[in-house]
Amino acid sequence: MSTLYPNRSYPSQAELLKKGADFFLAENQKTALKLKDLGINLNFAPVADLALDPASFIYSRTLQAGAEETGPAIAAFIKLYRQLGVASCAKHFPGYGDAGDTHQAPAKDLRRLKEAQLDLLPFKAAIAASVPTIMVAHLEVACYSPGPTSLSPEIYRLLKEDLHYFGVAITDDLAMAAARESSCPELLALKAGADLLLGGKLENLPILEAAAESGELPKERIKDALVRVQTLQDDYSL
Question: Does 173 qualify as catalytic in the annotation?
Fold first, then answer.
């Protein structure tokens, strides 16, 4: 129940989709317009993760459907938001699966590459629909790279080079436990390929400034991030 709209409840995205694609879009249009009325121009949605286990951490936030249904629904959501002038964000790349809660501790996805790649399908649909931002998760997907995906150069190469994504890559909240295993995840994320940082510690700003001045954080990396963010601002008049 919302405090701003006390007489309105907000069902999960899975509940909306179960009532049909038209109902799903109609309800999401109402929400997007309310956000716009409030001056909110970016919604960290939709959740593009695929989860098979109803007991898993992310399951209740997913569309609770397979890739063949999730992908088109994600694409339709993104196109709707673009038409309404509100930016959307597909998350949590490269797919959360049935991993544990990275808010509380590091979590690993130990599936083989062929299985993990199925989770990319909704993100491919999102990219084809011109999603303006994609949020990168903190879990470790062992078949791609060690450590949190949000701090992994391999993951950003997968997203930007292999999947040809030209939008903004944003980290999940850097205050989460899985990211804070590193002393300065903000710098690691930017070096790896993140364009925007969500959360993090303000006291680490001098570290970022020093890294930019010394060249540890390359000018090309900074320029790439700035171009992507500026394009987002221009496209949505942010």
Answer: no
